[in-house]
Design goal:
Strand order of the largest sheet: 1-12-3-8-9-10
Shape: globular
Helix content: 25-40%
Largest sheet: 6 strands, antiparallel
């Protein structure tokens, strides 16, 4: 798609559609083709009229032309001026006794649908999304002595909305010669839709089984940042490179009404940060560039202060005219305070000590979730990751994970030290969260010095807990500070403790590659920039490719032009690459190159026939490659790719995603989290992860042959 501004004026409401067939550019002698995109709102109900035939030039009467049946299937009717069995001019709902053609499947709501009709005196064809779904011969029904000029006597009009059963929007409505290609109209310049990136990691969001997100908010000293990524896609699922300003607001989940300030002088319910200052999110729009925009938000309004109602974040464009397809809503949100009682925290310490001391039957991390009354932050920190990874990712909280000395009384010295440190903090803070917030940063030094008095580890517990609780960006800042002064052993101990408290062993790998990632990134930028602030992307790309091939141990396969374009999108740059852009790109690329250097993936990456691993492609490009003109490829067809939304130090950066066609004839995405801690990874591990999906079980024969 082009880089021009998205033209909202190209869209209109269905009720405003008036289409006169008497057009000089169209020869109606042999009939005509009608093509358009339509978006049905969520309030649309079955048995709704879409387009009606209206008589012109002094003749009265109207009849249905397109409608939704009682089963929500699309129906098309003959023209009343050409055919004997055309719909009568009076209301004849529910239209089941009329001559018609109908689709076999329901028409989807809240999604763009392409409709095409070819109408002649002899036949009528109906197309949905470029596919022929119905046809009917009308020659026996043709009126005697009809004149082709009769087509000029009618017009097509959209549902006026008076019945309140249908609200729709149309785009690119065209009357074309009957010989025109419906597929060409379908593929060319499709409409756009705003969405929230479903693969975007929500490190700061805890998702319950009912799909409700829990986000820590409230007063400034407690609330935490969370990030959401908005994408602009066309109706074919492709990223749209058009600039558009989008703003975020907080609404109630049940009715979509704006959440108001709690009182005079109160903060806005949804905040964003700019240059270190918190501003109402509605006053700080974000520009979509290269098809996406990232919002970093905080919620000041607690659900408990709003009658325990749930919220949603609503993203919409800044245009005066609001359209539902240019709006996107998050999952329902419960905004909670992060204060916890001292009693609950002490329960957690007892469970932690029990887990450390039990050598014979160490409880898994899930044991901390057994007591519903024990509300602990470490409970579901990376739930967005654990949902899509094998159970092997969860580690046991035994002595193997955190070495400690056993004292004469049979207790763990390590646990004693941790208990004493945590208890001091609990007594000082009276049960509140131990992690200092942004607004409390001035007290961090004093807090850490108090903790350090009880610790022989130069990386204090305050830093460890802060790392466990923060998001990806904050973790990267902490890691850069840690590795600048800590020894390799200190970093290794830090990695073990993070794995213990988060219950996610994949953090170990991300922490252990930090020094090399930063070192090689710094060397590469110095080589590329020659100490300049910016460099042309065209000059930087060859050196980035050479560095990638070196790290990935892949002299025979580097980055293609398409791969480099994806990297430029990840960097968020145009023709010039800044240091910040490079660092953003490098934090994504290095874990990928490192993973490809391992023997298991290295061979699959180098293999080009068959091509096991695609290049660096986006989610949208992967889905598009599984589509064919008639729909989707056959069940079990898949593509291996690296998710563009996971960058270091996200626990799954460098992991693979399999995108495949499932048995339900829809596209699925599954994260394949390989165990990088095993230096000699089993060559069959990737195959086993793939074959866990029932639809991909047929691949077993393929793997055994290769």
């Amino acid at each position: 798609m082009g880089d021009d501004e998205c033209r909202v004026e190209d869209y209109s409401e269905l009720k405003d559609l008036r289409l006169v067939l008497d057009q000089e550019a169209i020869n109606l002698e042999n009939g005509f083709a009608l093509c358009f995109w339509i978006y049905f709102s969520g309030s649309t109900r079955p048995s709704s009229l879409i387009l009606r035939q209206v008589m012109c030039f002094g003749r009265e009467g109207e009849a249905p032309f397109l409608a939704l049946s009682e089963e929500n299937k699309l129906m098309a009717f003959p023209l009343m001026v050409l055919h004997k069995e055309g719909p009568p001019t009076e209301n004849s709902f529910p239209w089941t006794d009329l001559v018609q053609i109908s689709s076999e499947t329901e028409c989807p709501l809240q999604k763009w649908v392409h409709i095409g009709c070819k109408i002649t005196a002899d036949y009528m064809h109906l197309y949905i999304d470029g596919n022929l779904v119905g046809e009917k011969l009308l020659y026996p029904l043709m009126k005697d002595g009809h004149d082709q000029d009769d087509l000029k006597k009618i017009s097509l009009s959209g549902n006026d909305g008076n019945d309140e059963k249908l609200q729709g929007y149309v785009y690119n409505v065209q009357v074309l010669p009957v010989s025109s290609s419906i597929v060409d109209h379908f593929m060319k310049n499709p409409p756009v839709k705003l969405s929230i990136d479903g693969m975007c990691p929500h490190d700061e969001v805890e998702e319950a089984r009912d799909g409700v997100w829990s986000i820590v908010g409230g007063k400034a000293s407690c609330r935490r940042n969370f990030s959401l990524e908005v994408v602009l896609l066309d109706a074919l699922g492709r990223s749209v490179h058009k600039e558009m300003e989008v703003v975020a607001s907080l609404v109630y989940s049940d009715n979509g009404e704006l959440v108001e300030r709690s009182g005079d002088g109160a903060e806005a319910p949804l905040l964003t940060s700019f240059d270190g200052t918190e501003l109402p999110s509605t006053e700080r729009p974000v520009m979509i560039r290269h098809g996406r925009a990232t919002f970093k938000l905080k919620i000041s309004q607690l659900s408990s202060k709003s009658d325990n109602r749930l919220f949603r974040v609503c993203f919409h464009t800044t245009h005066i005219q609001r359209y539902p397809f240019l709006e996107a809503f998050s999952q329902p949100i419960r905004c909670i305070s992060r204060n916890r009682s001292k009693c609950s925290s002490e329960k957690f310490l007892k469970k932690l000590a029990s887990a450390q001391l039990d050598e014979t039957d160490s409880p898994t991390y899930n044991s901390f979730e057994a007591d519903e009354n024990c509300e602990v932050y470490f409970q579901n920190l990376d739930q967005s990751e654990s949902k899509c990874i094998p159970s092997s990712k969860r580690i046991k909280a035994g002595q193997d994970n955190l070495p400690s000395m056993i004292c004469g009384d049979g207790t763990s010295e390590g646990v004693k030290q941790r208990n004493s440190r945590i208890e001091v903090q609990l007594q000082n803070d009276d049960g509140s969260d131990v992690t200092p917030s942004d607004s409390e940063s001035t007290d961090t030094g004093n807090s850490e010095s108090r903790w350090a008095e009880h610790s022989t580890n130069p990386i204090t517990d305050a830093v460890i807990f802060k790392y466990c609780l923060e998001g990806t960006e904050e973790r990267s800042i902490l890691l850069k500070g840690i590795i600048s002064s800590a020894s390799n052993q200190d970093v290794a101990n830090f990695a073990e403790q993070v794995c213990l408290y988060t219950g996610c062993s994949h953090h170990r790998h991300q922490i252990m590659i930090s020094k090399e990632l930063i070192l090689q990134g710094s060397e590469t930028w110095t080589l590329i920039s020659k100490k300049n602030g910016c460099v042309f992307w065209s000059d930087a790309a060859p050196e980035i490719n050479r560095k990638f091939m070196s790290i990935a141990r892949s002299p025979s396969r580097g980055l293609s032009t398409q791969d480099l374009e994806v990297l430029r999108e990840i960097a968020g740059c145009g023709n010039e690459l800044s240091k910040d852009d490079f660092e953003k790109m490098w934090c994504w690329l290095y874990p990928v190159a490192w993973a490809l250097s391992k023997d298991q993936l290295n061979g699959m990456w180098k293999c080009m026939s068959p091509k096991w691993i695609e290049g660096l492609i986006t989610r949208e490009e992967a889905e598009d490659s599984l589509r064919v003109p008639s729909g989707l490829q056959k069940t079990g067809m898949f593509i291996l790719r690296f998710p563009t939304s996971r960058s270091w130090p996200h626990s799954d950066s460098g992991s693979l995603v399999v995108t495949y066609v499932g048995a339900d004839y829809s596209i699925h995405h599954r994260l394949l989290s390989l165990d990088h801690s095993n230096r000699e990874m089993d060559s069959g591990l990737l195959q086993e992860l793939l074959l866990q999906e029932q639809e991909l079980s047929q691949l077993g024969r393929v793997f055994r042959r290769n």
